[in-house]
Design goal:
This protein is of the alpha+beta class and 337 residues long. It has four domains: 79 residues, Orthogonal Bundle (Arc Repressor Mutant, subunit A); 36 residues, no CATH class; 71 residues, Roll (SH3 type barrels), CATH 2.30.30; 94 residues, Alpha-Beta Plaits, CATH 3.30.70. It contains eleven helices and 13 strands.
Length: 337
């Protein structure tokens, strides 16, 4: 297949990346194209934070990569391939042949049975079962096993959770609810609530919603709710009011909004934290963004998952990271000694 001469064939003046950085980019770039299908060059450049010319040149380099065949030589079917006509004429990235990355290791029947048993235990939790498609996931795991795994048997939980099904249906229908709620001090009050999410912590089940009595987000234990009824009024508050709590933590007074810096190649790993638009740091391959953080655990999770990630601000978050690093180093020295 001939190279396009006018645009993709010109040498690109891209970022000055070393070998490890280029490899990290290629490993993120190919799955990105595989997942999204045809992608405009401009969109890919904006996503990864690199010049469009660098993206086009990368395509030509990736087309020289692959896995040698049985003869030990690289033939056409052993290399990645792109639709160069689409690149030249439409400035669009179309991956038409991929190699190696589809060779997924298959898990054993014993391993699959263990995973299925774990899913069965999780599926017994009504809060998790309400938001996860365990049936589809179990079928995919069974298909991915080398042999057919045994179907695990998990004893069902004793009895249902009072009010759970009613609240789940109210959330799905977007309807407000009312109930009597008994606080920790034993006092009871009638509440009108826009239900947003059901949660479970060990054996306790909670409703997360907007309380009109308190005019704020509140968490209610289901075993303290009585007189539950679904109202005709439609909800006025929903998931957007939860802010970062949708990914497992609430923005709190500890840190609030934290500025994170990382390599541009790590941006896909940050997407689950709903960051602000990434800003490229002049003269480097790094970017900065803001993320709502309410716990030290969330900070540690980002630093562990995103290569090269550092906390820039505020000082409270930086000090929390220092304390974590000092504690980890101390434990390591104790173990090594």
């Amino acid at each position: 297949m001939a190279e396009p001469a006018s645009r993709a064939g010109r040498p690109a003046k891209g970022p000055d990346l070393d070998g490890a950085e280029k490899l990290a980019f290629y490993l993120a770039f190919v799955p990105y194209l595989r997942e999204l299908g045809p992608v405009p060059v401009a969109e890919a450049a904006a996503h990864f934070g690199y010049p469009e010319a660098f993206i086009r040149e990368s395509v030509l380099k990736i087309m020289t990569m692959g896995v040698p065949g049985e003869t030990g030589m690289y033939l056409a079917q052993d290399l990645f391939d792109f639709d160069l006509a689409a690149l030249e004429e439409d400035d669009e990235l179309v991956l038409v042949q991929r190699v190696a990355i589809d060779d997924v290791p298959r898990i054993s029947a014993r391993e699959a049975a263990g995973l299925l048993a774990g899913l069965a235990v999780l599926g017994a939790d009504p809060a998790i079962a309400a938001v996860a498609d365990f049936t589809s996931l179990r079928e995919k795991l069974a298909r991915g096993a080398a042999d057919a795994p045994a179907e695990p048997i998990v004893a069902p939980a004793a009895g249902g959770v009072p009010g759970f099904a009613v609240l789940r249906d109210a959330i799905a229908a977007g309807r407000r609810v009312a109930f009597d709620y008994r606080g920790a001090d034993g006092a009871s009050a009638r509440r009108e609530v826009d239900p947003i999410r059901l949660e479970s912590t060990d054996a306790e089940h909670h409703l997360r919603g907007w309380c009109f009595l308190r005019d704020d987000l509140r968490t209610f234990r289901l075993d303290r709710i009585s007189g539950l009824e679904v109202l005709d009024a439609a909800v006025e508050h929903g998931v957007p009011d939860l802010d970062a709590s949708e990914i497992g933590f609430d923005p709190g007074p500890e840190h609030g909004v934290v500025t994170i810096e990382c390599d541009a190649a790590g941006l896909p790993l940050m997407s689950g934290y709903r960051p602000s638009a990434a800003r490229r740091i002049a003269g480097s391959v790094r970017v900065r963004m803001e993320v709502a953080i309410g716990s030290d655990a969330a900070l540690r999770r980002i630093l562990a998952e995103v290569a090269g990630a550092v906390v820039v601000a505020p000082d409270s978050a930086r000090e929390a990271v220092r304390a974590w690093a000092r504690d980890s180093l101390g434990r390591y020295r104790e173990h090594a000694g």
